[in-house]
Design a protein that fits this description.
Length: 84
C-alpha cells in the first residue's frame, strides 16, 4: 500500500537526498504496517521521534508499535522543538 511520510526539522536529514528539501516521501509499505515498521528503515533516533501524527491525529508513544496504517495515510513526525 502507498503512504506519505513527512519528516520535519532536523529529521529531514534521514530522508533520501531527493526528498530532503521537500520533507515528503511517497513510499510503498506492506499491508498492515505499523508506524514503527515504517520508520525503522530510516533509522530515526527514538529520542527524536517526538510528535507523531497520522492524518492529523496524534499517536501516543505507547500506541506507535501497534497502530496499523491504511492505504493513503499521511504519517508526519516532528522532533522535540524548543523555543523562546
Amino acid at each position: 500500500m502507498h503512504i506519505t511520510l513527512k519528516l520535519f526539522a532536523s529529521l529531514t536529514d534521514y530522508l533520501p537526498v531527493t526528498s530532503k528539501y521537500t520533507n515528503i516521501v511517497e513510499i510503498e509499505v506492506p499491508d498492515g504496517a505499523t508506524i514503527t515498521q515504517v520508520t525503522e528503515p530510516y533509522r530515526l533516533p527514538e529520542k527524536l521521534v517526538h510528535l507523531v501524527l497520522v492524518n492529523g491525529h496524534y499517536i501516543a508513544p505507547e500506541q506507535r508499535a501497534a497502530k496499523m496504517l491504511q492505504e493513503g495515510d499521511v504519517l508526519a513526525i516532528w522532533p522535540p522543538i524548543a523555543g523562546g
